[in-house]
Amino acid sequence: MVNFWEKVKASLREQIPSHSYGMWIEPLRPEGVKNGSFVLSCPNSIIKQKVNKSYVSLIESEIHNLSGKEKGLVIEVSKNNGDHKTDKGTRFETAPVKNQKSVPGARQLHFSDISGDIQAKRIFQKDFTFDNFVVGMSNDFAYSAALSLASKKNAGQNALYLLSKTGLGKSHLSQAIGQQILANYPEDRVCYITAEDFAGEMIHAFRHNSIEKFKKKYQSQCDVLLLEDVHFLTGKERTQLELALALDYLLEAKKKIIFTSCYLPSEIPKMSEQLRSRISCGLISNIEPPNFSTRVRILRQKSKRKGYRIPSDVTEYLAGELSDNVRQLESGLIGVAAKSSLLGAPIDLNLAESVVKNLAGRKKSVTVESIKKLVCSDFSISMKDIVSRSRRQEVVRPRQVAIYLSRKYTDQPLQAIGKSFNRQHATAIHAINAITKELKIKSPVKRQVDILSKKLESGKF
Fold it and tell me: I need a surface site. Which of 105, 376, 419, 426 has the fewest CB within 10 A?
């Protein structure tokens, strides 16, 4: 059951933005099958409500695809969720950190909810600690900078900008900082939120006349701000203004601020100079893809934590073939363990090769141009249409789908993808976000993307 759920999660990870996956899918645990329905448990009612609202259909679809059986889905709140309430009714979550100074009652403060359906609250992943971060030449400086800030050893270091491509560990380090601070300084108020949710929370505050409460939350009720994916603020002028003002307060008060992004501040389009200067004021630390020896150590550590027994030759083979990012490594590891369990086959090089060809091979053969041709053929539009300035829906939606697939199946940066479609970088981000939202519901677009994805993965294009 556990191995089957890991395989479902690996598929979901490919379809859900990383911050959303970490927040809502990662905490789910398989409990078995009850009355013909697949039962998952979660830590609290917030996650249950969000999963039921946004992800049930997607999870059911993946369970059906992988098992070949139609099963319902039931989400239950675990009886051992570790949450409790204080006498003032404020929610807290325990935040233990391995091999670090133990502080009774260390907690992550969740601010009172002012955002309605927009959940700005975040729960740290327990595995995202400094102890579980594998350090190598590609990330040793970022690790040292993050640990120094979390330990408050350098009084002059108050801001850190973690820069890397997707799946290389910037979210891991960001959350590790938060958990370390909570363990050693339990009175500190830590706020962990994505830029996308920050913008949504601010919009909600304006619509419900609670903007002063929103400002107070970030200006005077926050000691440590962990802001993920700041590049999503591109073009959001009012949100950028409010964030810049909040950062002024925090920086002046010597509070800790950690940003993460896939792009340098100078490369984020349509960002005000006021905000750009604030997020550039701290140390900028880049995380590169891990080298071979580091990938081997990552696989061994993850195998140990998950209880997998992977032969050394298979571990080294996976490390040699899957070199893009840590997430790809984990997908390969889970795929090998799951296939071995489902087929009752030994874990050897032949089995590993059959898993790897689906993970590494597709990116070597799929190009932006081949995706454009496939989408044009499927939607019955011309190559001229898809790169035109047309805003007709029958052209816009295929263009968005093609940009989304180009981001998912190629190694091209967003700037290059946008340029291939005669579009700016910000437009490419908007297209990806638009299709990502469609994938969360049972829509014609989701079905079309699923069909195109299968063609790309099978090489039939």
Answer: 105
